[in-house]
Task: inverse folding
């Protein structure tokens, strides 16, 4: 029975995890040369009445041939499933459709995966764009390319000391005064606020369009992943057939 691309992809995840685990274990074995070494020795005295000693031995625990066989088995399985996916991917295409119109025709499945990631990142970016303060009345200045408010006038004050007569002068005593401090208006500020941010409705439109396009890409990817499997070569046999050829032993 012919498999679908999405079925092959699902199988590949398990095969890849198992193959990666097995090659890691085999690599650890290779780093222990003592496992590949052994010996057998017996003792022979120089005369019949000499000392008798027991034989000694150490068994070879791992053979390189066995390691290579395990490597070939696990990696060939991974290469086979990867080849099935990649050869089928060459035919896996789908249109990106929005509101009944084709935005991009016949997009490869691998590129649909790329677009999905890019649009996911774009959605996060748009969602975090700075917004204009809605408490202000903004007007767009075409020349400056910025939003501006009408001028708002506020006054500036400064401290001023003024003598206050406590007791007026008399023929016998001078006047008694005291300095008092008061705030007096010294000028006016005319403030125009400016902003390079965006209006909330404009940002919301960007986010909504990005969501719609992202959903269309996901639907196209699902359609592309329903592509029927195509014939692929036995990559594992070709690779290990060359690597383990007798002339290479």
Result:
């Amino acid at each position: 029975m012919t498999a679908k691309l999405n079925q092959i992809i699902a199988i590949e995840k398990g095969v890849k995890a198992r193959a990666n685990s097995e090659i890691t274990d085999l690599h650890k074995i290779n780093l222990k040369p003592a496992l590949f070494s052994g010996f057998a020795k017996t003792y022979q005295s120089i005369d019949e009445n000499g000392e008798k000693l027991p034989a000694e031995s150490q068994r070879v625990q791992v053979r390189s041939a066995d390691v290579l066989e395990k490597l070939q088995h696990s990696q060939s399985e991974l290469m086979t499933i990867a080849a099935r996916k990649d050869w089928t991917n060459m035919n896996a295409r789908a249109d990106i459709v929005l509101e009944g119109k084709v935005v991009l025709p016949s997009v490869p499945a691998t590129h649909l995966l790329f677009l999905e990631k890019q649009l996911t990142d774009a959605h996060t970016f748009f969602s975090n764009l700075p917004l204009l303060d809605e408490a202000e009345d903004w007007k767009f200045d075409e020349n400056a390319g910025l939003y501006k408010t009408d001028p708002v006038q506020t006054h500036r004050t400064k401290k001023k000391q003024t003598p206050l007569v406590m007791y007026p002068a008399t023929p016998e005593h001078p006047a008694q005064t005291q300095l008092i401090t008061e705030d007096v208006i010294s000028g006016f500020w005319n403030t125009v606020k400016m902003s390079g941010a965006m209006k909330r409705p404009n940002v919301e439109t960007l986010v909504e369009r990005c969501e719609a396009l992202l959903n269309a890409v996901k639907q196209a990817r699902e359609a592309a992943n329903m592509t029927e499997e195509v014939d692929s070569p036995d990559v594992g046999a070709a690779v290990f057939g060359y690597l383990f050829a007798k002339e290479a032993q």
User: Anything to note?
Assistant: The chain has five helices and nine strands. The mean pLDDT is 92. Residues 1-92+228-249 form one domain. The chain has three domains: 1-92+228-249, 93-135+198-224, 151-191.
